[in-house]
Please model this.
Amino acid sequence: MMTSGSAPQLSLDPDDRLLIIGAGLAGYHTARGARLNGHQGQITILGAEHRLAYDRPALSKAYLTGAVSEDDLALDDPDQPLDAQWVPGADVIALSAVPLGVHTLTGEFWAADAVVIATGAGARTLPQTNPDDEVARPYLLRSMDDAAALRATCLQGLGVAVVGGGFLALEAAATCTQRGAESVTVIAGEQHPGATRLGTPVGRALRSVHEAHGVRFASAARAVSVTSTTAGHTVHLADGSAVAADVAILACGAVPATGWLQGGPLHLSPAGAVLCDDFGATGIAGVWAAGDCAEWASQSKGLRPVGHWQEALEQAAVVAAHLTGAEPQPMQEPYFWSDQYDLRLQGAGRIAAADEVRVLEGSAETGDLLISYLRGGTEVGILGFNRLREVKRWRKQHQIRKAQTVAA
Ligand SMILES: Cc1cc2nc3c(=O)[nH]c(=O)nc-3n(C[C@H](O)[C@H](O)[C@H](O)COP(=O)(O)OP(=O)(O)OC[C@H]3O[C@@H](n4cnc5c(N)ncnc54)[C@H](O)[C@@H]3O)c2cc1C
Model:
């Protein structure tokens, strides 16, 4: 693998063929960035799904409640369509370093001068029993097809079990409640969802927001498997208890979509992510990776998060810049958000690195919590419940500071 210290060689001559694997956020923005930077050669995007690139965050929020449509989530701008060859329904199964290119399930070989791997992540699941064709499977929430299936299900009067304690699970719980489910039970694996990652005050506040909307939390035991029958689903927990529901949603994490790279020339992390330096270079000449399928050096060191929208977007811009010889923008402080009911939660900075969590203002009851994260007494991050102004100001100040540091 390449070291993270020095910028890699440019990969593209002006007429070279750029091949992008994965028609998602990172894939789309790598292509868009390369064109904006003046690349004139062919750009081809191979995507496993049978649709063009779309934005995922609304799939567990406004799309599920019906507030936005599939068309609203399209990434490409119809007024200024991306100049690229889109190949939907192309399932890539192997990478070849020499000659450089990829093989698809249908037996084609796509040759390239540079390959960008942007295959994202797939949903983590649980062992399932009895999922034959007669029996409804638990829903997942990763792709438009997953979300469309859940959106098409009438939840009125039904009991829903949501497995997972991250934002995806909590957003799903909120939308099911808003859509008239009779009961919603969250199986989060910790007493206060998100407390381990974001601190107990945040976990407590999130739980109390959901409980105020009637959501129940199962015991803090981990879900270990699901049994599905025509009568419904039973989620089995590690402490021997179980939760029965008419509808089950598995939102218990993501795994890099890199099964197709196993046994190939790239270095993968134990979790399966493509290991890269902080320019997205993989160490194989002409092969780059960005987004949820990748783990850049600063992410391996715990300095930046994985699996966030902003990381994928910024990594795509960095890769596009290095491919085309443009000056890459320094990456911003990490940032994420989540929408649950009328709550917008936003976090910025290096929250995972904090050794102290301090409540600055507000409370869960008033829905306006403001939290500071410190390391060695210095503030490294911020999180707000409906604190748009404060989080924006914090991000702006840190962006200016960072630009000054880079310039100095
Ligand atoms: C429901 C949901 C809600 C989210 N909400 C938020 C949020 O509120 N805030 C936030 O910060 N982040 C959120 N995220 C995370 C954010 O959307 C991701 O970080 C982002 O989409 C990652 O972009 P990506 O391009 O790496 O992967 P993706 O957008 O997942 O795109 C990868 C594409 O590659 C394709 N692919 C996979 N394998 C192959 C293959 N072998 N051959 C060809 N194509 C392949 C996939 O089908 C997919 O289309 C959410 C994610 C989901 C699923």
Observations:
- The radius of gyration is 22 Å.
- Confidence is low (pLDDT under 50) at residues 1-5.
- The chain has three domains: 18-122+255-324, 125-252, 342-407.
